[in-house]
Amino acid sequence: MQQAQQNSYVEQHAWLESTLGQYLLTREQAMYDAVVGDIFGFNALQLGLLQMDLLKNSRIPHILHVGNREGDAYCESDYLPFDECCIDLVCLPHVLEFSTNPHQTLREAERVLVPEGHLILTGFNPISAWGLKQIVTKDNNYPWHGHFFTLSRIKDWLALLGLELVSGSMNCYEPPINDEKWLKRFTCMDKLGEKWWPMLGGLYFIVAKKRVVNMNLLKPNWKKNSIKSRLSVSSNPKSKPHQQKIMNKNNYE
Predict the structure, then answer these.
(1) Is 50 exposed, middle or buried (0-12, 13-18, 19+ CB in 10 A)?
(2) 223 CB burial (10 A radius; 0-12, 13-18, 19+)
(3) pTM of the prediction?
(4) Coil, helix or strand for 135?
(5) Which helix (H) or strand (E) holds 82?
(6) Of the candidates 149, 77, 83, which has an alpha carbon nearest to the alpha carbon of residue 106?
(7) 45 close to 91: Cβ distance less than 8 angstroms
(8) What does the alpha-carbon distance between residue 40 and residue 113 come to, in Å, rounded to a whole number?
(9) What's the half-sphere exposure (Cβ side, CA atoms, 13 Å) at 235?
(10) Which of 50, 145, 223, 248 is the most exposed place for a label (fewest CB within 10 A)?
């Protein structure tokens, strides 16, 4: 088991250093950079793909980078060593595709998120040229041996866990060719894809928020008259004002 994880780890690093891997990392880094700066809180977590610092533009003061073999802490994605409701932002870059239990991974992300906390995840779109290559090549190396989930399935899982979709987008419309010259020749496909076939991008980017049903925020009652609360009140709420004056007069006689 450990040997298999080591081999997968080495394959991942080697592929991410390739031309196609660098193309993916560049596009993905830009998508995270454009969003994380507008999310606030105290604690943020990046789980996996630590070759990138996806939280470098974040304004959140406490940031953790976690992986199963490197980072500030070691753990598996389906069991996070954090308390409930303690993280304001969780980033899951390509974690679900390679998790042994992807639904449990999402459960753990939802568990550690604070109410109104944000989840950002990226994944390979099977309904794209990237998904087609996975089917045709039958390559068992990274990333083609992963399980590519459709965007609709991811949305269903998020809804079941009470995670509301805030925004989503696609990227990487160029065919997954691991050659720099050919990638440059297909650069125009990114602009064409965004306009003519927006749902066929090789990479999807999702931002979701944790909603808590029937959560009421306690607010101070600024309209309350503090002077009025200090006045004495008659023990008989039905007594009329003129009856109270008579009772007070009798007490002094």
Answers:
(1) middle
(2) exposed
(3) 0.80
(4) helix
(5) none
(6) 77
(7) yes
(8) 13
(9) 2
(10) 223
Tell me which fold the domain 2-210 belongs to. Rossmann fold (3.40.50)
Q: Are strands 113-124 and 203-210 parallel, antiparallel or unpaired?
A: antiparallel
Of 95, 53, 55, 54, residue with least CA distance to 75: 95
Q: What is the pLDDT of residue 27?
A: 94
Residue 44 buriedness (CB in 10 A; 0-12 / 13-18 / 19+): buried
Please state the domain extents for the chain. Answer: 2-210
Residues of the chain with pLDDT under 50: 226-232, 234, 239, 241, 243-247, 249-250, 252-253
Q: How many CB atoms lie within 10 A of CB 222?
A: 5
Q: In terms of C-beta distances under 8 Å and separation of at least 24 residues, what long-range contacts does 127-132 make, across chains too?
A: 127/151, 127/199, 127/200, 128/172, 128/173, 128/200, 128/201, 128/202, 129/173, 129/174, 129/175, 129/176, 129/200, 129/202, 130/172, 130/176, 130/202, 130/203, 131/202
Predicted local distance difference test score (pLDDT) of residue 236: 54
**Which residue has tokens 């009421």?**
216
**Which residues, in sequence order, are CB contacts of 112 under 8 Å at separation 6+?**
45, 80, 82, 83, 84, 85, 86, 87, 90
